[in-house]
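re: the backbone from monday

yeah here it is again, tokenized this time
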């Protein structure tokens, strides 16, 4: 992780937390029309509760990272693309231009995400 801007997200019970560093690559909507942000997978690390973090195949070619206590999904990781999808719209996302390549945008759309233009 770099020494740049960072944020922390946690599950609803507070057991598992993740640190994200830098800026998102872009924003979008999931199949339920919830806001999501797209991040480089290497910009994310477990900040706490690693022993309660459950990582399991998602069925779409990636993995879901879920809190083992409250069962909240924190992110969807796609190792092949080096990409993580987090639920929510970070405060700084409006200031960043989309850094997603056309190939990554197409891959995300094939997974059911709608990539929003910036």
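seq for it, each position gets an aa:
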């Amino acid at each position: 992780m770099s020494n740049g801007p960072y944020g922390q997200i946690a599950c609803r019970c507070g057991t598992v937390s993740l640190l994200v560093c830098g800026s998102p690559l872009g924003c979008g909507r999931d199949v339920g029309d919830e806001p999501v942000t797209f991040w480089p997978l290497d910009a994310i690390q477990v900040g706490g509760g690693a022993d309660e973090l459950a990582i399991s195949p998602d069925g779409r070619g990636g993995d879901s990272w879920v809190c083992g206590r409250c069962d909240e999904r924190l992110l969807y990781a796609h190792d092949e693309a080096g990409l993580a999808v987090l639920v929510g719209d970070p405060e700084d996302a409006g200031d960043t231009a989309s850094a997603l390549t056309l190939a990554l945008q197409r891959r995300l759309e094939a997974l059911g995400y709608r990539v929003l233009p910036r």
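Residues 6-116 form a domain with the Metal Binding Protein, Guanine Nucleotide Exchange Factor; Chain A fold (CATH 2.170.150.70). Residues 102-110 form the longest helix (9 residues).
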